[in-house]
Design goal:
This protein has helices spanning 15-26, 42-47, 49-67, 83-107, 165-168, 185-196, 216-229, 284-287, 323-337, 366-372, 387-392, 420-432, 437-441, 452-461; strands at 2-11, 31-35, 111-114, 116-121, 124-129, 132-143, 147-149, 162-163, 177-181, 200-204, 232-234, 237-243, 249-255, 262-266, 268-271, 275-277, 310-312, 351-353, 358-363, 376-382, 398-404, 410-417. By secondary structure, the chain is an alpha/beta fold. The strands form five sheets. Strands 1, 2, 3, 4, 5, 6 and 17 form a seven-stranded mixed β-sheet that branches. α1 packs parallel to α9, α3 (49-67) runs antiparallel to α4 (83-107) and α3 (49-67) packs parallel to α6 (185-196). The chain is globular. Bound molecules: flavin-adenine dinucleotide.
């Protein structure tokens, strides 16, 4: 028997699910969320974006205290690492954020139900937890169950010495040697955290480059900077096995194309080869919801699956696995269900690697434009020529703007530099409004600021930078 009737039940309270529920409630829909974790906020708030950024922030301050403050005339002596206290700081940040979501759900009168949801029929969700089961009746269902850690065949994650990001944000001790499998965002961010805290970090990557999909020129310079900081990269290589029988872990590393294996010893191995959509136990095959060949829920332009009344958003569908992409899809589907025109512009989704310096980009890379046969102009400006970066001692990196050769419309902006993650917002707004590089170049930018480099790169598209 159905317990109560809703307009919408969202399964999962990550950034996709909880934002969808809040927007739906704002629009007057009777809304509930189902969450199997003890706390709300999903991967992002509990074990993803928030804890990793807390550790990146804290470890950056630690490194700054050890290396840079003295150069500014601030003597702090040799900083001491109190790892348990740093972890507590991180946990407090997570707690504040997940409680914030709980508060918002309550404030918006979203019915929050703890338990595991399974769709037993269109409009019917069985929720189990604490030994009991109940069935919710609803007009619409949004699947927002997110993603899980991707694994490599033959390498077991024991979450002790061979760990996923879930444990890499909570290690009890700084590993002397950390081997990271995968040079994607998560591997580089968490590799940076532990390098700053004292680990010798080696990153093994199957491809011949780091950060696949990112503009290659930017990625190459980024790799050089990370190497200068002490991270070792083994590109075009694959880890085929990890022997955990001894005191040290022994990872077998082979050339990607095959060949003789070499052993790299480590104290901790971090598996960071990506994430996979999570649909386990949802009952999708039983009710006929179609998945693609990578296990993602297939949706149409309105986020509806092939089963009417069942929608999906976030990491569980196609597109970049990013919190803000999930949020925007959550808002869009809520607006569609509320009778409005929900829409996500997939051409303007910023992507940030929160290392130091940060790497932030939005729009197309040079490689993508070449592949699409689009003629483009390039404008670049280095932070070595930016006054604020000079006094801040953050001159690593540059801004690169790609604009259509004929119309001058901005097609991509890539920023490698301190605070790039904040600066990319200007780029996204400009692109959302269809800006030309000339528009950015003619926009007055405050001095002295790092975003002046964005303006200068826009000027450089027509070869008229002032400070170069
Ligand atoms: C270490 C790390 C760092 C990251 N950093 C960033 C970052 O800086 N910026 C960024 O944009 N993205 C980042 N991400 C990615 C980001 O976390 C995801 O893109 C985002 O969380 C996806 O949101 P979602 O709502 O689709 O799913 P999720 O956040 O994964 O939430 C899904 C929720 O559904 C619940 N659930 C699953 N199945 C059921 C069920 N049957 N019943 C009830 N509940 C269920 C899960 O418990 C979970 O809480 C990071 C990820 C990781 C792992």
């Amino acid at each position: 028997m159905a317990e109560s009737a809703y307009d919408l039940v969202v399964i999962g309270t990550g950034p996709g699910g909880y934002v969808c529920a809040l927007r739906a409630a704002q629009l007057g829909l009777k809304t509930a969320v189902v969450e199997k974790r003890a706390t709300y906020g999903g991967t992002c708030l509990n074990v993803g974006c928030i804890p990793s950024k807390a550790l990146l922030h804290a470890s950056e301050r630690y490194e700054e205290a050890g290396h840079d403050l003295g150069r500014m005339g601030i003597k702090v002596g040799s900083p001491q690492l109190d790892l348990p206290a740093m972890m507590k700081f991180k946990d407090a940040g997570v707690e504040g954020n997940v409680k914030g979501v709980e508060f918002l759900l309550k404030k918006n009168k979203v019915h929050a139900i703890q338990g595991t949801g399974r769709i037993v029929a269109p409009g019917k969700i069985e929720v189990t937890g604490n030994g009991a089961a109940r069935v919710l009746a609803t007009k619409n269902i949004v699947i927002a169950t997110g993603s899980d850690v991707a694994r490599l065949k033959g390498i077991d994650i024991d979450e002790k010495r061979v760990v996923s990001s879930d444990t890499a944000i909570a290690l009890g001790k700084v590993p002397e040697r950390l081997l990271v499998i995968g040079a994607g965002v998560i591997g580089l961010e968490l590799g940076s955290v532990w390098r700053r805290l004292g680990s010798k970090v080696t990153v093994v990557e199957f491809l011949d480059r780091i950060l696949p999909g990112t503009d290659l020129e930017v990625a190459k310079q980024f790799q050089r900077i990370l190497q200068k900081q002490g991270i070792t990269f083994r590109l075009s290589s694959k880890v085929t096995a990890v022997d955990n029988s001894g005191k040290s872990l022994k990872a077998s590393v082979e050339p990607a194309s095959g060949g003789a294996a070499e052993v790299i010893e480590a104290d901790v191995v971090l598996m960071a080869v990506g994430r996979v959509p999570y649909t386990e136990g949802l009952g999708l095959s039983e009710i006929g919801v179609r998945l693609d060949n990578r296990g993602r829920v297939i949706v149409d332009e309105n986020f509806q699956t092939n089963v009417p009344g069942i929608y999906a958003i976030g990491d569980v569908i196609t597109g970049p696995m990013l919190a803000h992409k999930a949020e925007d899809e959550g808002v869009a589907v809520a607006e569609i269900l509320g009778g409005h025109a929900g829409h996500v512009n997939y051409d303007v989704i910023p992507n940030v690697v929160y290392t130091f310096p940060e790497l932030a980009s939005v729009g197309k890379s040079e490689e993508e434009l070449k592949e699409a046969g689009i003629a483009y102009k390039v404008g670049k400006f280095p932070f070595t020529a930016n006054g604020r970066a000079k006094v801040n001692m953050t001159t690593d990196g540059f801004v690169k703007i790609l604009a259509d050769a004929k119309s001058d419309r901005v097609l991509g902006i890539h920023i490698l530099g301190a605070d790039a993650g904040n600066m990319i917002a200007e780029a996204a707004v400009a692109m959302e409004f269809g800006a030309s590089s000339e528009d950015i170049a003619r926009t007055c930018h405050a001095h002295p600021t790092l975003p002046e480099a964005v303006k200068e790169a826009a000027l450089a598209v027509d070869k008229r930078s002032i400070h170069m």
